Amino acid sequence: MVKQDLLNKTLESGVIAVVRRIEADKVIDVISALVKGGITGIEVTMDSPNALQTIKEAKQLFGDKAIIGAGTVLDGNAATLAIQYGADFIFAPTLKQETIEVANRYGKIAIPGVFTPTEILQAYEWGADVVKVFPASVLGSQFIKDVRGPLGHIPMMPTGGINIDNIGDYIKAGAVAAGVGGSLLKKELIANNEWDKLTDLARQYVTKIAEARNNK
How far apart are CA 195 and CA 185, in angstroms? Predict the structure, then answer.
């Protein structure tokens, strides 16, 4: 799949699910439930147990329905490793040029973390495909709307503090998608193996995004 197609598929549902530190015996069930709910971007964080193996297995199982990537990628070495195990996008909480360069070198999607207009522009000039505005909870959806005035050509994805009640506001403000963690991957659902409920929650997020996109 060429890079633009990868990016389109990743952003299709408008949700990137942040799969962080899920027990090894449950993580594939979790990803399966999310994909069944229509989520097309699955981020496995590098600080998770067996992260690389999870990326590899998830891509083999769900690669035709969703794009599997790596998150919490802090440097070029981690990006290279993740890509070797099949990651198609590289999510970072911070802005580091070498991480973006590695992703671009291998034709993968680079999504670095940014917090200010200066960092947003710097990331894009270094070759980022999308910028991850993080932590979005501190800035709010109005920040996205305001900064898109001068920097509207740069795709933005808020992450951090996104939930079912505010995700639509970020999309209406101009975000191309949103990274969602704990408010989607609810601990009690995972603890009780309630995969149908997790799928239903994922579907609610996807529906909310679709509605917000149609009402922009």
Answer: 10
